[in-house]
User: What shape does this take?
Amino acid sequence: MEIREAIRTNGTVRAFTDDPVDDATIASILDDARFAPSGGNRQPWRVAVVADPMLRRELALLMQPVWDEYMETAAAGGNPFNVVDYVKPTEIASNKHNTLLENIESIPVVLAVAADLSKLAMMDAELDRAPVTGGASIYPFCWNLMLSARAHGLGGVMTTFLSRVEPAAAPALGLPEHHALVTTIFLGRPVHQPTKLKRNTVESFATRNRFDGPVFPE
Ligand SMILES: Cc1cc2nc3c(=O)[nH]c(=O)nc-3n(C[C@H](O)[C@H](O)[C@H](O)COP(=O)(O)O)c2cc1C
Assistant: This one.
């Protein structure tokens, strides 16, 4: 697939056919993903290909309350988990519907991706706000993975809810010391591949010279 078309049409897939995805395909996708850039080319990624259904269910049970909290906040008009003004709801109804978590045993591929923090240059770690630059050395790998999955006829979704319960998930996944869980990726053959994506226009986010400059392009 042509690269611009792939970038513009790689919509999120949350429902998969029963077609299995073999290890050779998963290995091939990881083999593409590894060409991602990272600070100092330190390649901080680690991937656990989670096949064990009991382990998957354990992870789903950990993720469910995070999903519940997300949905409760979103339903009340909030921006869940943002680090500026997020307030955790006082009451959270449990077991809100989530097809990924409900069907986790039968999803063809579940990948837990971790980053070795000793290999990340966290340029903004000492600022008086939450750091984000460390992600720049790991998420290009994750998105390469998603694009490669598409090229292999697969689709899926990157999620981050496991990071919120990382201390509980770490022993289950054997997460090494000084590693962070950065995403859980679900992949499979799409029941339907969305290709018409809703995104804001360039004019809505780009300006000339300064962020308070004139809209780009004029
Ligand atoms: C960091 C990140 C976390 C996400 N977490 C979830 C998630 O927990 N559950 C989910 O169903 N989708 C998740 N998504 C997918 C987004 O909802 C999706 O990218 C967005 O709604 C745009 O949808 P589209 O790609 O189909 O246009 C996540 C995406 C990203 C990049």
Observations:
- The first helix runs from residue 3 to 9.
